[in-house]
Amino acid sequence: MSIRTKLIGVVVLINLIIISIYVLYVAGLKRDSVYQKIDSTLLAAAAASKPNLSIYHNKTASAAPTDEEYKTLLLGLGDVAKTIGVEFIYSVIEKDGKFYFTSDSATDEDFATDDISHYMSEYEDVSPKMAEAFSTSKIEYDEITDEWGTHR
């Protein structure tokens, strides 16, 4: 093999390495961009839900909601979830080291099939990041798999 052939081979190899690095870099940028969009949508869903949930949680701190109050809240959260484009909006509280649903977005169909999280039903699939968010009061994003699927 001539020196010229070897030199061309080295140049091609260097080009392949540079192109590979660039492709990985661009893919990382794209992934980050997708996560930023998802996270901003999740934050918007939380912000849109917070006023109603704050009033609801203040009221239910002393007494459980009536069935009608619970249904009204869940249907309202279902409307917000649909409008913003998220699958679920739910609220959870921590009590004695366990986590419980206090609300979960729903539709009329969910109520008809009883496919709802009942008030104060235990949430057993709490991720470490969710538990950390409770202890630090900081916003956390996580990808979890539970009985309802895989979500961010």
Which key terms come to mind for this protein?
12% strand; two-stranded antiparallel ribbon; alpha+beta; 152 residues
Question: Any overview of this molecule?
Answer:
The protein has 152 residues and is of the alpha+beta class. 59% of the residues lie in helices and 12% in strands. The chain has four helices and four strands; from the N terminus they run H-H-E-E-H-H-E-E. The strands form two sheets. The protein has a two-stranded antiparallel sheet. Helix 1 packs antiparallel against helix 2. The longest helix has 58 residues, at 3-60. The radius of gyration is 24 Å and the shape is elongated. 11% of the residues are buried.
Helix segment tally: 4
Category by helix and strand content: alpha+beta
Largest sheet: 2 strands, antiparallel
End-to-end distance: 55 Å
What percent of residues are in strands? 5-15%
Strand numbers in spatial order across the main sheet: 1-2
The Cα radius of gyration reads: 24 Å
What is the element string, with H for helices and E for strands? HHEEHHEE
Low-confidence stretches: none
Topology at a glance:
Blueprint: H1 3-60, H2 67-84, E1 90-95, E2 98-104, H3 108-112, H4 128-136, E3 144-146, E4 149-151
Antiparallel strand pairs: 1-2, 3-4
Short summary of the structure?
The chain has 152 residues and is an alpha+beta fold.
